[in-house]
């Protein structure tokens, strides 16, 4: 889902956000796996 605010759309900001979200998600999965061990 893509959300543009202020009528402006920056591919750099969007891809940067998606990359950070993927990194955070991966980190969260690692922490969850470690806590289950």
Would you write up a description of this structure?
The protein starts with 10 loop residues before the first helix and ends with a helix. The protein has one helix at 11-36. With 37 residues, the chain is mostly helical. It has 1 helix and no strands. The longest helix is centred in the middle third of the chain and has 26 residues, at 11-36. The mean pLDDT is 65.
Largest sheet: none
How much of the sequence is in beta strands?
A: under 5%
Indicate the radius of gyration in whole angstroms: 14 Å
**Alpha plus pi helix count:** 1
Helix/strand order: H
Shape: rod-shaped
The separation of the N and C termini measures 34 Å
Number of strands: 0
Task: Give a quick set of tags describing it.
37 residues
Short description:
The protein has 37 residues and is an all-alpha fold.
Produce the secondary structure layout:
Layout: H1 11-36
